[in-house]
Every structure is written in structure tokens, then in C-alpha cells.
Specification:
Largest sheet: none
Low-confidence stretches: none
Mean pLDDT: 88
Order of helices and strands: HHHHHHH
Helix content: 40-55%
Strand content: under 5%
Radius of gyration: 16 Å
Length: about 160
């Protein structure tokens, strides 16, 4: 697969904010569309990428009627599992309104703050927590929180 957006999942998740993507182990995930992940697959990779040659579910003609994608999106409103899905719908809306390039830029900004939080404040057991915070806080809230944490830790 030759995708410009390896770190944006087929379903709309941001890989950059995922605990597995931010792992320092051999099992680190390189993104939903990385060669390793493509080999393992998921229902969305199989359908959109492998069968239809699409980068994202929303590019599909059946995206508004796809029960699998709708179920995934609705599940995000009920609870979390692997990663924080609370912003999935808002992220998809953002992409559809402002474009994938703007979303990618925003996710890179979030990732920079996440990496700073992980490098400076992770006690070794809080990576998932920081990833969720990086997903649900606004960029402004993230930056303010990081500044406050830095100021409090140097006092």
C-alpha cells in the first residue's frame, strides 16, 4: 500500500495518539497502514484498502450505509476499548470539512505535545492516560496543561 497518511486509520483514528504507536518495544505499531499492520489487518483495512483500494472508509460509496463502520462509530459514543474513541466522530467531521492535510497537521501538533508529556512526566504506567488526554483535550488545553506541569515540576 502506498499511502501518504500511514498514521491515520482507515476508520478515522489517529495512530499518532495511540499507546501502541508510542511504544518503545519491538511490538510498536507503525500506524494502521504500515506494512506490518496491513499484513495483520482489521475489518476496515480488509474492506477499504485490500478490496476497494481506498485509503479511508469515508471515501467509499457505501460509507453512509456501511453497518460495520456505523457500528464502530456508534461504539465510540458508548465507551472506550483499545484507544480513546471519544473524538472519532468529531475527527471524521473535521476531516470532511477541513481536509485530511489539516487533520494530519493537527495530529502532528498533538503528537509533539504527547511526546513531551511522555518524556517528561510518564512514570512508566501512564502512557495510555497521556494518549487519551492528547486525544480529547483541545490543542490549547494540552499546551496550557503542559506549561502548568512544567512550571509545577520545576518549583
Amino acid at each position: 500500500m502506498d499511502s501518504k497518511y500511514i498514521e491515520i486509520g482507515v476508520c478515522g483514528l489517529s495512530c499518532r495518539l495511540c499507546p501502541s504507536y508510542n511504544s518503545q518495544t519491538e511490538s510498536r505499531c507503525g500506524g494502521c497502514k504500515s506494512p506490518e499492520r496491513i499484513r495483520v489487518g482489521c475489518p476496515f483495512l480488509t474492506c477499504a484498502v485490500k478490496k476497494k483500494g481506498l485509503d479511508f472508509c469515508w471515501q467509499c460509496k457505501q460509507s453512509t450505509t456501511c453497518e460495520k463502520w456505523e457500528y464502530h462509530r456508534n461504539a465510540s459514543k458508548i465507551g472506550d476499548s483499545f484507544k480513546c474513541y471519544q473524538t472519532l466522530e468529531a475527527d471524521i467531521d473535521f476531516i470532511l470539512q477541513k481536509g485530511i492535510e489539516e487533520f494530519e497537521k493537527q495530529q502532528k501538533d498533538r503528537e509533539l505535545i504527547l511526546k513531551a508529556m511522555l518524556n517528561e512526566f510518564n512514570d512508566g504506567h501512564s502512557k495510555s492516560y497521556f494518549c487519551i488526554v492528547a486525544s480529547i483535550f483541545t490543542l490549547d488545553e494540552l499546551q496550557k496543561t503542559l506549561t502548568i506541569a512544567r512550571n509545577n515540576s520545576s518549583s
